[in-house]
Amino acid sequence: MAKRILIIQGHPDASEPHLSHALASSYNFGAQSAGHTVKHANIAELDFPLLRSQKDFETTTVPSSLKPIQNDLLWAEHLVIFFPLWAGDMPALLKGFFEQIMRPSFSGEHTSFFDKKVLSGPTARVVVTMGMPAIVYRWYFRAHSVKSLERNLLGIIGIAPVHKTLIGLTGDMKAAVAAKWPNKLKRLEGRAE
Length: 193
Hints:
The protein has helices spanning about 20-35, 55-60, 65-75, 90-100, 105, 135-140, 145-155, 175-190, and strands spanning about 5-10, 35-40, 80-85, 125-130, 160-165. It contains 8 helices and 5 strands. The chain is of the alpha/beta class. The chain has a 5-stranded parallel beta sheet with strand order 2-1-3-4-5, with helices on both faces.
């Protein structure tokens, strides 16, 4: 069954293509080939300020550049987020993006899992590239930043379940190995996972 998919490219560097961009492109191709409708948000191309106070978070309006993405988030049945692991977490620009679009004016001041969710039914996949082995990030570091995204941002507004694809050793990745990852994602996007 065809789904409405929102792909969020969270790599903050738009000056050159990265593995994260190739993966998103592959996912997009496979999703559209399978009949899904796809929209995109490329964080590096958006202009928005970072929030600097609780007052700004609670009382100022969402920048006009991000309002269409809030609408796309409400439209989407499946969300796919791509980002590189930087300093053990998502890049600051991506975190700032989420802080802007998921403010109380959008989320209905939901602060816990016990509140009624803004969204009900959307699923998500988070695809993270990193220099360390993915198994080390998953088991030793307990994939803390991905769990935080799943629980503290996506879960609060009602996006669940959240599937994860962790891709490690990207700095030393051989071309043949890197070439396999887009094909792996193509198999996922056809099922909108």
